[in-house]
Amino acid sequence: MTDLTKAALNGEQSAGRRRTRHFVRSLRRSPVGMMGVTIVTLIFLVAVSVPHLVPFDPVVHNLSARFQPPGYVTEYGTHILGTDQLGRDILSRIILGSRVSVLIGLVAATIGTTVGVTYGMIAGFGGGWVDSIMMRFADAFLGIPFIVLVVAISGVVGPGLLTLVLILGLTGWVTCARVTRAQVLVVRELEFVTAARVVGQKPLMIVLRHVLPNVIGSAIILAALEVGTVILAESSLSFLGLGVQPPAVTWGLMLADGRAYLGDAWWMTTFPGIAITITVLGVVFLGDWLRDVLEPRMTDVS
């Protein structure tokens, strides 16, 4: 290994350590960021540790324990958050529902962000009539009411987990595409992109090496915020019967189950609603912190 190669590797390692220290210092100085990272980390750990955390079987019926309030004690243990209309433990179902909600949020946000970044980069870097046609299509897509699109796709494909993920993923790309396109229009005029063109680099290599690194920060921010939006949308659609179907457990389905018993069993809807609220707030806090951390660095690079 030559001295020049060693120097380059050392420089990359030093830059990586500086970036890590920058993130850690920023997180320590940001109560909102710390709260967001803590909430998101806890929700993720709960989602991946479901079998070890549920105090009761979330799907087994116990009709003798129907509509029991929080703190109800049986010979099998304490129902900390009460039971539902079939005697199922609310806490166990919230823990199990976190797995489905988090999975839908992550997968759908990843699909939407990937499609949006790719679409926006093609439109922005292509320019001209390519940009005009692609952006008019995006504008037309925005004009389609979300609920109409969901009902139409669900009617053709049928409701279910896969359908819901595809719907939420393929309807959340437009905002990311427009933001990415706007950034690409700026980046493509910078000196290093012009220099890459002059030396004869292929457009695909220019996009991957020089344009993508300068827009990926915004994509990460949008993806983080999109996770919260998707979780909220999933809960709403499941509540309306257009999302995940029983016997699967989601927070939206739990809200739908409890709406008929609000007067007598308030805990059936209150605790799933709190879980949704905390999760969405955590993701929003995380996205705000990422924006504060990444945007100044992106400006410096540009």
Key words describing this protein structure:
two-stranded antiparallel sheet, MetI-like fold, 302 residues, mainly alpha, disordered C terminus
Write a brief structural summary.
With 302 residues, this protein is mainly alpha-helical. It has one domain (21-48, 97-301): MetI-like fold. Helix content is 75%, strand content 2%.
If you had to describe this structure to a student in words, what would you say it looks like?
The chain has 302 residues and is mostly helical. It has a single domain (21-48, 97-301), classed as MetI-like fold. 75% of the residues lie in helices and 2% in strands. The chain contains 12 helices and 2 strands. The protein has helices at residues 3-29, 31-48, 50-53, 90-126, 128-142, 146-157, 161-171, 174-187, 191-198, 203-240, 251-258, 267-301, and strands at residues 72-74, 77-79. The chain has a two-stranded antiparallel ribbon with strand order 1-2. α9 packs across α10 (203-240). The radius of gyration is 24 Å and the shape is elongated.
Could you give the topology of this structure?
Blueprint: H1 3-29, H2 31-48, H3 50-53, E1 72-74, E2 77-79, H4 90-126, H5 128-142, H6 146-157, H7 161-171, H8 174-187, H9 191-198, H10 203-240, H11 251-258, H12 267-301
Helix pairs in contact: 2-4, 2-12, 4-5, 4-7, 4-8, 4-10, 4-12, 6-7, 8-10, 9-10, 10-11, 10-12, 11-12
User: Any guess at the CATH architecture?
Assistant: Orthogonal Bundle
Under CATH, the topology is which? MetI-like fold
Class from secondary-structure proportions? mainly alpha
Spatial extent as radius of gyration: 24 Å
Rounded mean pLDDT score: 80
State the name of the first-level CATH class. Answer: Mainly Alpha
For the largest beta sheet, what order do the strands appear in spatially? 1-2
Helix run count: 12
Range of strand content: under 5%
Give the ordered list of helices and strands: HHHEEHHHHHHHHH
Q: Show unreliable segments.
A: 4-13, 296-302
* Coarse shape: elongated
Q: Distance between the terminal alpha carbons, to the nearest Å?
A: 32 Å
Most strands sheet: 2 strands, antiparallel
Number of DSSP strand runs: 2
Helix content: over 70%
Number of domains: 1
Q: CATH H level: which superfamily?
A: MetI-like
